[in-house]
Design brief:
The protein is of the alpha+beta class. It has one domain: 2,3-Dihydroxybiphenyl 1,2-Dioxygenase, domain 1. The protein is about 20% helix and about 35% strand. Strands 1, 2, 3, 4, 5, 6, 7, 8 and 9 form a nine-stranded mixed β-sheet that branches. A hairpin with a 4-residue loop joins strand 3 and strand 4. The chain is globular. It starts with a strand and ends with a strand. Bound molecules: cobalt (II) ion. The site of cobalt (II) ion has 6 residues, from strand 1 and strand 6. The site of cobalt (II) ion (CO) has 6 residues, from strand 1 and strand 6.
Length: about 130
């Protein structure tokens, strides 16, 4: 069902500092910060030859990554995003197998302007999984 790895998301407390690590130390192509108030994060995309890295910094008081950063103050891998052809078909198949879809199960428009869903880490090897329809 899943296709390519679309991105790996890394939550950080300081987006400028994290961007500099990727740009200066690792020599990656780092994009400009984009505020996404509807998702409670500011995002920086890093283009790698075969995938992307998504740096996430909390935005606002109720950011969904605030708790994560409390537990991992140095930052850490927050989720992985896999591509699917049909997000509704993927959701329905996963739900029929007992997997938990976060929220109300309705795809939201994600950082790339495409429909996304998140799957419960407890059902996927302790890792938050994002599905993105491409
Ligand atoms: Co993501």
């Amino acid at each position: 069902m899943i296709g390519r790895l679309n991105h790996v998301a890394i939550a950080v407390k300081d987006l400028a500092k994290a961007s500099a690590v990727y740009k200066d130390a690792l020599g990656a192509k780092v994009g400009a910060p984009m505020a996404q108030p509807e998702h409670g994060v500011t995002v920086v995309f890093i283009e790698l030859p075969n995938t992307k890295i998504e740096l996430l910094e909390p935005l606002g008081e109720t950011s969904p990554i605030a708790k994560f950063l409390e537990k991992s103050p140095d930052g850490g891998i927050h989720h992985v995003c896999y591509e699917v052809d049909d997000i509704i078909a993927a959701r329905d198949q996963l739900k029929s197998q007992g997997a938990r879809v976060l929220g109300d199960g309705t795809p939201k428009i994600g950082a790339h302007g495409k429909p996304v869903l998140f799957l419960h880490p407890k059902d996927f090897c302790g890792t938050l999984v994002e599905l993105e329809q491409v």
